[in-house]
């Protein structure tokens, strides 16, 4: 059985933090941020907004577009690095808020690659006919993992959520393949080292900001570009496709320099690449479904288009998915 995206939705908090706002808080400038990241602004969750709230907004839009009621959802998967709490899973809270009372629910953690990992899991549940309707959500409140005094990372991240509803495919459509990779030896290139089991919460964790994102940017850049190129070629080869067969590349919105480098290596035109990080920043697991939803809604992506999803994140993790939308 083929599995397709029946509906999609996205949500970003109302508060917008611009580069000019950051200029007033830290030693940086709009020109410096744009030149190095491509980001001009990002959305920030309100104090009373949790990851589950963002996820529910996106999920409702996906269900509405698909014409499927919450009670007809069989499984909810939330990919996130910032759950509402250690347990229960954010997916359980989403299930309750959404009214999807018949659905099983669990979280998945693969950092910025989380959406593609969750898409792979959800696709297999539908393909095996275990479930008919699987809701896959990438949702993040990255602002609460951010050290706002570290100009190397605080300029990068934003908050948001994106969702897709998976179900049985009409003939000729569907998720053609998903390709996942991990290199745990490089876990410390992008991580939040403290505040959990290895380094429990303490005064030291707070003082040294160990409960915020730590990233080795220059090392990460080189590895990200190489691995994204390789997994893209792997995915294309698996489907007997060339890059010219791809209508749209929807990459994780990490950094404009990474996106341009990958596009150059793949020899795909910038007109075929969906980019919105200038307005959202890096929303981690939410970035691909956010960008996908935007391109569907503005008419760029149409039914029947061939789409290549690409992601890279902490773990290290990376992956690709080829979708005939």
From TrEMBL:
<keyword id="KW-0808">Transferase</keyword>
<dbReference type="Pfam" id="PF08541">
    <property type="entry name" value="ACP_syn_III_C"/>
</dbReference>
<dbReference type="GO" id="GO:0033818">
    <property type="term" value="F:beta-ketoacyl-acyl-carrier-protein synthase III activity"/>
</dbReference>
<protein>
    <recommendedName>
        <fullName>beta-ketoacyl-[acyl-carrier-protein] synthase III</fullName>
        <ecNumber>2.3.1.180</ecNumber>
    </recommendedName>
</protein>
<keyword id="KW-0443">Lipid metabolism</keyword>
<comment type="similarity">
    <text>Belongs to the thiolase-like superfamily. FabH family.</text>
</comment>
<keyword id="KW-0012">Acyltransferase</keyword>
<keyword id="KW-0275">Fatty acid biosynthesis</keyword>
<dbReference type="GO" id="GO:0044550">
    <property type="term" value="P:secondary metabolite biosynthetic process"/>
</dbReference>
<comment type="pathway">
    <text>Lipid metabolism; fatty acid biosynthesis.</text>
</comment>
<dbReference type="InterPro" id="IPR013751">
    <property type="entry name" value="ACP_syn_III_N"/>
</dbReference>
<feature type="domain" description="Beta-ketoacyl-[acyl-carrier-protein] synthase III C-terminal">
    <location>
        <begin position="236"/>
        <end position="325"/>
    </location>
</feature>
<dbReference type="GO" id="GO:0006633">
    <property type="term" value="P:fatty acid biosynthetic process"/>
</dbReference>
<dbReference type="InterPro" id="IPR013747">
    <property type="entry name" value="ACP_syn_III_C"/>
</dbReference>
<keyword id="KW-0444">Lipid biosynthesis</keyword>
<dbReference type="InterPro" id="IPR016039">
    <property type="entry name" value="Thiolase-like"/>
</dbReference>
<dbReference type="GO" id="GO:0004315">
    <property type="term" value="F:3-oxoacyl-[acyl-carrier-protein] synthase activity"/>
</dbReference>
<keyword id="KW-0963">Cytoplasm</keyword>
<dbReference type="InterPro" id="IPR004655">
    <property type="entry name" value="FabH"/>
</dbReference>
<dbReference type="Pfam" id="PF08545">
    <property type="entry name" value="ACP_syn_III"/>
</dbReference>
<keyword id="KW-0276">Fatty acid metabolism</keyword>
<feature type="domain" description="Beta-ketoacyl-[acyl-carrier-protein] synthase III N-terminal">
    <location>
        <begin position="106"/>
        <end position="184"/>
    </location>
</feature>
């Amino acid at each position: 059985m083929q599995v397709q995206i029946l509906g999609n939705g996205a949500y970003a908090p109302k508060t917008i933090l611009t580069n000019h706002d950051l200029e007033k808080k830290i030693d940086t400038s709009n020109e410096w941020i744009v030149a190095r990241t491509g980001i001009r602004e990002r959305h920030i969750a309100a104090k009373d907004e949790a990851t589950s709230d963002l996820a529910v907004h996106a999920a409702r839009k996906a269900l509405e577009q698909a014409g499927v009621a919450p009670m007809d959802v069989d499984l909810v998967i939330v990919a996130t690095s910032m759950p509402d709490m250690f347990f229960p899973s954010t997916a359980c809270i989403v299930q309750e808020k959404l009214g999807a009372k018949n659905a099983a629910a669990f979280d998945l953690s693969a950092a910025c690659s989380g959406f593609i990992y969750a898409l792979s899991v959800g696709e297999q549940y539908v393909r095996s006919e275990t479930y008919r309707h699987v809701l896959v959500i990438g949702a993040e409140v990255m602002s609460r993992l951010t050290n706002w005094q570290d100009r190397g990372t605080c300029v990068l991240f934003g908050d948001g959520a994106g969702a897709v509803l998976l179900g049985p495919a009409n003939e000729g459509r569907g998720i053609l393949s998903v390709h996942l990779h991990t290199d745990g030896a490089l876990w410390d290139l992008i991580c939040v080292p403290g505040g959990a089991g290895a380094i429990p919460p303490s005064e030291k964790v707070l003082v040294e900001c160990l409960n915020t994102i730590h990233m080795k940017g220059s090392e990460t850049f080189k590895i990200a570009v190489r691995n994204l190129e390789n997994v893209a070629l792997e995915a294309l080869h698996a489907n007997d496709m060339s890059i010219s067969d791809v209508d749209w590349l929807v990459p994780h919105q990490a950094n404009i320099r990474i996106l341009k480098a990958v596009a150059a290596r793949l020899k795909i035109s910038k007109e075929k690449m969906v980019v919105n990080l200038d307005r959202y920043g890096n929303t981690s697991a939410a970035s691909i479904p956010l960008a996908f939803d935007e391109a569907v809604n503005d008419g760029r992506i149409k039914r029947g288009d061939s789409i290549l999803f690409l992601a890279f994140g902490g773990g290290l993790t990376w992956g690709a998915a080829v979708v005939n939308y």
